[in-house]
Amino acid sequence: MTASDHYLRPMLDSGSSRVFNCNDRALELVQDSAPEPYFFKMKKMHGIVLIKEAILDAAGRDANDPIIGSKLYIPYNQQDVYEGGRSVFFHEKRLLEVLNEMLGLRGASPEEQDLQHDVKMLGILDRLPSLDGFLMRDALELEGITANDQYFEVSGDERAIIRDFVRQKFKPLVRRACGEGATLSGKVTHLIDKIWEAKDKEALAPLIRAFHFPDDEALAIFASWKGINFYAFEYARAKPQREQFGLWIRDTWSPRSFVPKSELDYLKQLRREMSERLRTHWNTIESIAREYESVYDRFLSTREGVRDFIAFLRRSREIYWTMGDALSKMNHAIHCWDKVSKAYDDRRLPADKLAVLFDLLKTILADTKRRSESAVVWQ
After folding, report:
1. What DSSP string runs through 253-301?
2. Do 43 and 177 share a structural domain?
3. In a domain, 377, yes or no
4. With left for phi above 0 and alpha for psi between -120 and 50, is residue 86 left, alpha or beta?
5. Which one of 118, 139, 175, 263 is at 20 to 30 Å from 212 when CA atoms are compared?
6. What whole-number distance in Å separates Cα of residue 224 and Cα of residue 232?
């Protein structure tokens, strides 16, 4: 493995919310003799790594489709994903062709049924802006699929805390629609459950009418609002790690030993370019979080605030995907920085390693709207 590969390896770690490394997780569980080591029905499907990336070629996609897609990377050698492999976006017509070629999925009809089930799972995950364990598990569960919890890096207690946070955000809107005398029982609890599922338009009709949601967008609004609350929770929870990363960039990033001025200037340039991209995503998510907090508070306290909050919710699908993209990129960058830098005292890296790290972080933090080069380029 080259030095560059060593520092790119965190790109495929499951610790990032942009990566679901099914390949490595399955190998770990099999080696540990776990009773239920698999995520998909087909064992061969566990050779994939799922990555959220900008879609560089939007041909054949609707203009309103998100420009974030799910790329399946299939390594030639499952023991070392960096020996090369094939990749394909989930939405591409050649998806099954690539899976057949790489995993040898052609076979009898029972296997074909399992493949349909597993492709359905991938389709559900493709509809998410990021690959956070909570969102993945919840999305699959709402489609009637009980997935292996060992792949989700989120405990039952943690899920309960997040779920309670999100449901508490739903409560005032439901009470407003049901009348001031409503309590958290019966109809209110039922409607909160239905908002969470975001499937039953008839059950949600009182809320849709009360807040004048477009009928054809109502379910998407509720689903996206749930996602916005999740990302708001994650943004607040990750503040310590985010600030630690920011302080390192500002104060303690310099190489661990003396370097010539020309080399130091080059490192400063890389740092500046990376910092600008980080600042863009940080400002994006901070701006949305503040706007949401402001309109939500006004919704609770003033009659005029209802109008502004409903207007915010009508933009919820776009906001949901924007939050997910910005937050997961920051999460991915911080994860890679932590994995690489913690091996050194005070996180002071040698100059050559620092250059590789800055370049890696700059790539991760590329602006999705510019459809920049893929963060992980495969054949």
Report:
1. -S-SS---HHHHHHHHHHHHHHHHHHHHHHHHHHHHHHHHHHHHHHHHH
2. no
3. no
4. beta
5. 139
6. 12
Give the up-direction half-sphere exposure of residue 58: CA atoms within 13 A in the CB hemisphere.
14
On whether residue 378 sits in a domain, the answer given is no
Residues 342, 325: Cα–Cα separation, whole Å: 26
pLDDT band at 61 (very low <50, low <70, confident <90, very high): low
For 243-266, write each residue's pLDDT tens digit. Answer: 999 999 999 999 999 999 999 999
In angstroms, what CA-CA distances link 4 with 8, 11, 183, 359?
A: 6, 12, 59, 10
Q: How far apart are CA 304 and CA 228, in angstroms?
A: 22
Q: Are 192 and 205 in contact (CB under 8 A)?
A: no
Residue 141 domain-assigned? Answer: yes
Strand partners, 72: 50, 88
Backbone angles phi, psi at 89, to 5 degrees: -75, 150
Q: Which two tokens stand for residue 191?
A: 């409607």
Q: Looking at the structure, do residues 230 and 294 belong to the same domain, yes or no?
A: yes
